[in-house]
Amino acid sequence: MSKQLAIPRFSVGVGDRFAHQAKAQLAACLRAAEAGVDVIPVWNKSHREHTIIGSEPSQTRAAADAAVNALGWERLYFVDADHISLTTVERFVEPCDFFTLDVAEEIGKPARPEEVEAFLSDHPELRGSVSIPRIDAPISTDAAFVRGVANKFLDAVREAGRIYRLLVERKGEGNFVPEISMDETDLPQTPVELLIILAAIADERIPIQTIAPKFTGRFNKGVDYVGDVAQFAKEFEEDLATIEFAVKRYGLPQNLKLSVHSGSDKFSIYKAIHDAVVKFNAGVHVKTAGTTWLEEMIGLAEAGGGGLEIAKEVYREAYAHSEELCKPYATVIDIHQDRLPSPEAVQAWTSEQFTSALRHDQSHPAYNPSFRQLLHVGFKVAARMGDRYLRALEDHHEIVSHNVTANLYERHLRPIFLGT
Fold first, then answer.
1. What are the residue ranges spanned by the domains of the chain?
2. How confident is the model at residue 1 (pLDDT cuts 50, 70, 90)?
3. Which CATH class is domain 10-291+409-418?
4. Which ranges of 281-413 would DSSP assign to H, the alpha helix?
5. Contact present, 2 and 403 (Cβ < 8 Å)
6. How much of the chain exceeds pLDDT 70, in percent?
């Protein structure tokens, strides 16, 4: 059996939509290492983002490799085929070594009755009183409950298995890190539901190293967590306890850890995440994909002149095409149209006015979450600018990179992984 490529305890998903900020992102990980904690970068970019930008996964790999070589990074790093399916995996096979298996479309599809009954027969331990160490009280279940959960998730797990086995055929066993995304469902999974899912994954022989469950609250793109922080903290700890138990009970990989999707800018839950992983001596993977694109916009606006003009143009076009841009993200944004400034008003803004509205500083009176979310989904506008946008990034490289590094380290890595 081949040696398994293993992701270390702490890792961060870093999106780089235009493949210009890999060095700036890696610089944040170097700052974390200097402060005493290793946070492994995982450059993630989805099939949809590549399609919008007109890029290829090989470009993400090339940018990551170049940054690692330039900065002398000697730890592991990964390139994630983010949210891939059987129909989109092909272009990612060669350049990627981390695969987020997206089975959202299969969740809720009724499984074959004989498969559900076979699962029920194979797992009598999931019925009756289920005790998970480090969760206060046993959980009572019955055959009908387990059957219902299996019926909802088994088809998705089987699909993940098909994707995983294809990757094994193409890349070889142990040569990539598999993650399964279960967050795109209607309700947060309870501990016993997550346990049932993990039992099914073990049956399917998928050696997952990270899993993204559904958490309570809203994880809107580019803005803070909306929900009950205490309830999130309780669920997060219960998920850690469930994973710890499932690893021992079902022989899943020892380094299996939680993955928090849409994790960028969720400042109000970072302390809960940090405290929980310390308490459980656990790992965590946090995806911060879109925040870098917004820091590019902040850097360009801060630069003034042509940079500020490009930032204003992006907003003007995003405002004009907001319905088209928002539609794919409708479930993960909350934009109040009446709180969006008119393009005419924004055209008259100074650099400071633009950056104050966009930068995620909730204490600043000018901060505008609706403005920020519209620009978050507006990267398609910059993609249409082509070389003009990329030249602007290069012309204002220093100020853009400063914003990218500071945002990732100060607002994300420090509170999550260092607790400061």
1. 10-291+409-418, 293-396
2. very low
3. alpha beta
4. 291-303, 305-320, 322-326, 343-347, 351-358, 369-376, 379-385, 387-395, 397-406
5. no
6. 100
Q: Which of 396, 406, 374, 376 is nearest to 309 (CA)?
A: 396
Q: How many CA atoms lie within 13 A of 178 on its CB side?
A: 30
- Determine how many CB atoms are found less than 10 A away from the CB of residue 388: 12
pLDDT in tens, 36-84: 999 999 999 999 999 999 999 999 999 999 999 999 999 999 999 999 9
Place of tokens 């073990």: 202
**Other beta carbons within 10 Å of 406:** 15
Residues 159, 180 contacting (CB under 8 angstroms): no
Token pair 């060095």 in the structure block, residue: 23
Residue in 384, 357, 386, 389 with CA at minimum distance from that of residue 373 = 357
Which tokens sit at 290? 């879109």
pLDDT mean over 121-146? 96
Q: Where are the alpha helices (DSSP H) in 35-112?
A: 47-53, 57-71
